Amino acid sequence: MPIVIRKDEWNRINNWANFDAEDPEVVRRREYVKFLNETSQVMTKAWPNSLENVNKRNEELRIARNLQAEQTNTKFYARYLRKKKEEQERLMYSARDMVFKNKDAPKLLLSAVIETAVQKEREEQVKFLNERRKEEAERKREDDDEIIRKAKEWHELMALRKKRRWDANKQHQKDILDQAHEVAERNRTEYETELNLQKIDNILAREQMDALKKFDEEFRAEERARIFRAIEQDRKETRDRKREQDARDKMDDKLIEVLQKSRCRIEQKRKKTEADLKNEKLRVLEKISQRLESGDAVRNAKEQAILDKAVKEKNDLNEARHQALLKKQEQFRQDRMASRAKFLKDEEQRLRDFNTTRQWDIMNRFKNIEIYEEFQENLRKQKERKIAEYRAEILRLWKEREDREAKERADTRYFYGELAEKKLRAADNKLLTHAAGLLQEAKEHGRPDYALHRAIDAYCKLYRLYPMPDLPRSMQEHFTGYTPWDGSRPDRDYVEPPPPHPRKKAVPLPAPNAPQETTRTNGLQAVDKPGPSKPKEEKKEENVQDYKRSAPANGLQRRNLEQTFSLPPITVVPCTNESCRCELKPGAK
User: Fold this and answer.
1) Which residues pair with 519 in a beta bridge?
2) How many structural domains does the chain have?
3) By the 8 A CB rule, do 550 and 557 touch?
4) What is the mean pLDDT of residues 447-460?
5) In whole angstroms, what is the distance from residue 413 CA to residue 419 CA?
6) What's the start-to-end Cα distance of the chain, in Å?
């Protein structure tokens, strides 16, 4: 298939296909632009108002503003931490006290205290109840007399109301019957009228529906007929156009054939006419010469000269005409040869363009195949790399999970072992100290303390705080120096922690790069990381710079959960306070 393009387009395609060649004008232009750029940089390097120096000054100003904002944020954050820490300490103390008082043993002591208070006030309540009973009996007698009097008045009033209501009901019943008859008559009349109107409306609606249906059928029939006529008209016009086109084609063929025949016939007639004209002139001249043979010699010579001259002129004219005809035929032959040569040249150029385009397509096809193979190879390498990375990531996660599970098991053993025993004993000390304080308070107020002693005895028996009985006589000689442990009394070195003061001085904020203790904030209390025998892991340094740069310098930046001191949603966690005894359950949060 030939492609027609301009010469400049073909030159552009050839230049684009030549990858190694580079336009010298482009190279010169690029070198000139590079020279101008270097010269401009050298000239503007020392200018105070150049773009680079202005940007440098702006950057210095920005760094100074950021430094000032960081200092402001540091001060604000230090004040914020102090305030939140004081508030958290108060909340932690109140939460621990609330948790301690909500346990079974403190509730048992509270019940005992309430029982002692009840026993002391029992006699006063009995006296108060006797007086209340006398007052209630007197009030009951007076209320009974008043009720009897009001009942008599109420019965008389009910009888009067019943009689009046019976009379009113009779009159109302009569009025209702009259109204019912009137409404029934009116409803019957309206129903008959409505029924007649509905019948008329149904007749009219049926007539309108029939008319609409008839109109719809006629419209559909007319539409189908119109569509059919339009289709037939289109078919007829198509046939006419096709027939007309065929007739025009035949007429053109006939006209071309007639034109060719007429040209041939005209050429034959012209040649025959010229030959007849020549023969006729020769015949006329021959008759004239025969008539004039009797003339004198001068006249014959003159006439012969005239005849020769005329013959010569006629011959010259015929020769000129013949030469013109030959020249015209030669020119026509040259034009046909030039046209043929131009056609052959154009055809050769078309074939060359076609071959060049086909070669270009073949080269592009091979190049695309190479690119696709390279793409597939890159995909395979990328897949292998991703598989290797995924395998390494899986192995890393596997190792992290094993380490995390080992650490959790160690923490669980420590939490439910040594730490649990310390917390249980701390809870016992706190409760026994609290019970001693309640006994002292009952003694000061003169309340009986039997209930408190019973509650303490039940607690000690429940948690086996009494000392073990003496060993059998046969085993005492093997355990000399053995003294049973008595846990029914607080430890000698136990001191109950005082409540925090609301104006307690806050701990100064540590430096940003200083190492911090291995504690974590969980919303209720600060829990030491379990495992005293394990090496302590240093907590990540608090990145104050990242916190300051996370938002504008307004003191309202948000921190990560590990660094924030705000109060998150409350989550019950194991308590590390030795003076508190929390009831721990495995897996509880």
Assistant:
1) 528
2) 2
3) yes
4) 88
5) 9
6) 82
Give the closest residue to 534 by CA, choosing from 394, 361, 443, 414: 414
Q: What's the pLDDT tens digit per position in 204-255?
A: 888 888 888 888 888 888 888 888 888 888 888 888 888 888 888 888 888 8
Distance CA 582, CA 76 (A): 37
Are 429 and 488 in contact, with CB atoms under 8 Å apart?
Answer: no
* CA 496 to each of CA 186, 511, 577: distance values in angstroms, whole numbers, following the listed order: 95, 33, 11
Residue pointed to by tokens 């995924």: 390
Question: Sign (positive/negative) of CA torsion 340, 344, 349, 354?
Answer: positive
| 501 three-class SS | coil
Instruction: List CB contacts of 437: < 8 A, sequence separation 6 or more.
Output: none
Q: Helices (H) and strands (E) in the chain — how many of each?
A: 9, 2
Residues 216 and 139 in one domain: yes
For 341-374, give the DSSP string.
HHHHHHHHHHHHHHHHHHHHHHHHHHHHHHHHHH
> What's the pLDDT score for residue 17?
66
Kindly state whether residues 323 and 348 are assigned to the same domain: yes
Q: What is the DSSP string of 300-314?
A: HHHHHHHHHHHHHHH
Tokens of 187: 């409803």
Count of beta carbons in the 10 Å neighbourhood of residue 53:
14
The residue among 292, 307, 327 that closes a domain is 292
What is the Cα–Cα distance from 235 to 242, expressed in whole angstroms? 10
Domain assignment present for 551: no
Query: Which strand (E) or helix (H) includes residue 528?
Result: strand 526-528
| DSSP secondary structure of 178-231 | HHHHHHHHHHHHHHHHHHHHHHHHHHHHHHHHHHHHHHHHHHHHHHHHHHHHHH
Which residue would you say has higher pLDDT here, 305 or 4?
Answer: 305
Distance CA 335, CA 341 (A): 10
Range of the domain at 376: 295-400
Domain boundary residue among 400, 432, 449?
A: 400
pLDDT in tens, 525-537: 333 444 444 444 4
pLDDT at 318: 86
CA distances from 322 to 276, 328, 330 (A): 16, 10, 12
Residues 163 and 236 reside in one and the same domain: yes
Least Cα distance to 566 among 83, 195, 226 occurs for 83
Does the CA dihedral 439-444-447-448 come out positive or negative?
positive
pLDDT at 216: 85
pLDDT of residue 220: 86
3-state secondary structure of 255: helix
Q: How far, in whole angstroms, is CA 518 from its chain's centroid?
A: 40
Residues 329 and 237 in one domain: no
Contact indicator for 410, 531 with CB cutoff of 8 Å: yes
